[in-house]
3-deoxy-8-phosphooctulonate synthase
Amino acid sequence: MQLSSIPKIKHTDSNNFFLLAGPCAIESEDMALRIAERVVKITDDLAIPYVFKGSFKKANRSRIDSFTGIGDEKALEILKKVSDTFDVPTITDIHEVSDAAKAAQYVDVLQIPAFLVRQTDLVVAAAKTGKVVNLKKGQFMSPESMKHAVKKVHDSGNENAWITDRGTMFGYQDMIVDFRGIPTMKQFAPTVLDVTHSLQQPNQSSGVTGGRPDMIETIARAGVVNNVDGLFIETHFDPANAKSDGANMLHLDHLERLLSNLVKIRKTISSL
């Protein structure tokens, strides 16, 4: 697919990787606009094609008392306001078949969570909206097996699919990125590396997922060197107090330096 086919996407002729970035979950209008404003300025300065990311609800939680959202319609309206305010496309994840048509009214890209990427009805419902479908590779799946998820989208009459690698389970409480999978998945669809979720440490006894944000630049650099089409980075101005996935998010204050370094690497790789 052509990145330029996404409404409001910019800098598509810059030869940069594209970026999916924002908070894990929409916590309030103020926080979403605050994060979007900062990331839009950084990506405009660096000529990075940008899609604002925010989950309108979180269905996959360790504990019943974990934060799930502020209300579906309220969060989706905030995503639309981000798009209208900053003239950028948006992406959110869906969890049920009924979410597809609902979320498609507000966002430009629908994301299938890793744990649900084998759910045929969900993938087909997303594909039939005509939106770009971002398929997260299951933590339990091989890179090769993702061709079947992509084929479900294509067979539903939608050629616009991405694959996002968010790591593979390594034991019970760690994730690992197998960079051999990137060229494999790029054969099937444009491939994104989810830098922050790849550094999660799930299944903690506390019921709160841990993470290794200190390794974000290491993983991101390796992704760019290995020619990923895009990067996925969750970021927040106060990760310690974020309502979801704070343990593995990048502090917003560190995003500009990280992306500046990655753009330099991209330019070097492109010249080889």
Summary: The domain at 3-270 is CATH 3.20.20.70 (TIM Barrel). The longest helix spans residues 29-46. The chain has one domain: 3-270.
